[in-house]
Amino acid sequence: MRLLLNFISKHIYLEILIVFFGFLFFFRLDWMPLNSWDEAWYASIAREIVKHNEWVFLQFNNIPFYDHPPMGFWLMATSYKIFGVSEFSTRLPSAVLGLMSIIFIYLIGKKISKEKAVGFSAAMILGTCVWYVIRVRSGNLDSIFVFFYIVSIYTALLARGRMVWFLVSMLSFGSLMLTKTLVGASALPVICFILLPELINIRKNYLWILGGVALLCLLVLPWYWIQYVSYSDFVQHHFFTIGTRGKTADSFLNLQYELPLFYLHMGVRKWYYLWLASGAYLILFFRFMKKNISSLLLWNVVILYPFLTTDQTHIWHLIPVYVPIALIISFGIWDGGKLIVNYIKHFKIPLMIRFNLLHDWVVKGIYLGVIVFIVFLQVKIFYSEVIPQYRYTPDDVDISQRAGKYDSTIYLDDDYLPLAVYYSDQAVHQMAYEPEERKTLVNLFKSENEPFVAITRNWALNNLEENDLEYKILEQNDSFSIVTKPQ
Description:
Blueprint: H1 2-10, H2 12-26, H3 38-52, E1 59-60, E2 63-64, H4 71-83, H5 87-113, H6 116-127, H7 130-136, H8 142-158, H9 164-177, H10 181-185, H11 187-194, H12 196-200, H13 202-230, H14 234-242, H15 258-268, H16 272-284, H17 291-304, H18 322-347, H19 350-354, H20 360-386, H21 395-403, E3 409-412, H22 417-424, E4 428-430, H23 441-447, E5 452-457, H24 461-466, E6 472-476, E7 480-484
Parallel strand pairs: 3-4, 3-5
Antiparallel strand pairs: 1-2, 5-7, 6-7
Helix pairs in contact: 2-5, 2-6, 3-4, 3-22, 4-5, 5-6, 5-8, 5-18, 6-18, 6-20, 8-9, 8-11, 9-13, 11-17, 16-18, 17-18, 18-20, 21-22
């Protein structure tokens, strides 16, 4: 019993984090249907991997997909292999790795500050950034990306003086690159900065360095090389069209920070101004002279800066920035609090000394109390936004499920293509991207003689009637109909 109590006492911070965020990330995880676009899109790609046992050439709706590397889809497909295809198994990798990220940011915070309370606070801050919670509870790539990013940095910290960890850091960095290529590359300068003395000492560490680089290349290069030789537009599409959104080198000097910072504020909410204050404190009071703190600030700048130079940033793109933000806030408040305490001790204020108000456990209690109070406010505000209060099936999901039972070619007269593909488990033709003769419902009925079914909004049936075109309703709900041409 004593051993058990000692174990619980020693790991109390981790136990609280696992229980609290285990509930927040997994409770009612499958109560909502998948979202269109990205979530249903990625789920469909992962299902194709399982269906055809094809792990190298990704496909969506019978079209090759190489917007992103395959790591996130491999994890999702593995979940499907084990648990079957469902909303829960789609989101499971994100939720599991989201919880693991909470553990690893705790370990980073503890390592850089030598204080468990700082690691605990950093984990609490990251885990209560509303858009982090939203994406952890979804079948997207962001949570997976953040996990490999955090592990890459943490193992780089461990590699100081123990270069065997450099091998693990490079494997994690390779997995990061295989999740999102160019955004993941931003971890490399941070890793190099953390390990600068070890990397400079080539004579002592060259075997570890060569081994880490070799592992990185063995993990990353095969998939990129295969795509390069298979698709003539791979480099242009993957690295430039998708990776940089068509940005030029000059555009990286053109700041467009208003929208990204607005999105950042909306994503982290109450932590935003604490981040600004903590960052300012660490700079103005020269705390950045410490290697760990300069690494945090560099991490923050390297990953945030590219998003400040484009007007195409979306709120979820900024989620990786939350990690250094959480660490900067937790360390900044802790270090600032210690500075104030030392200042008070210097002047020996009798009342505070008499009532032991400067004891470490009191200071730590106040620090944790502030963090936990803000956590409470955050969760109270966003809980109903991220945790579904009841199950329901939207009309677009319902009609897509019904469409799956028809063997004819399926046309979609709307813009939720990934949702239709996933829930029908069929190839679907979106009319907006079809040739002119099939671009609208009326044109489709006029020109198509082969058997087909079309998913359309109920009001669009008026267009068929106005053009004296006969149709047959196969399925219908409050918003959509599945129609076909009478034979």
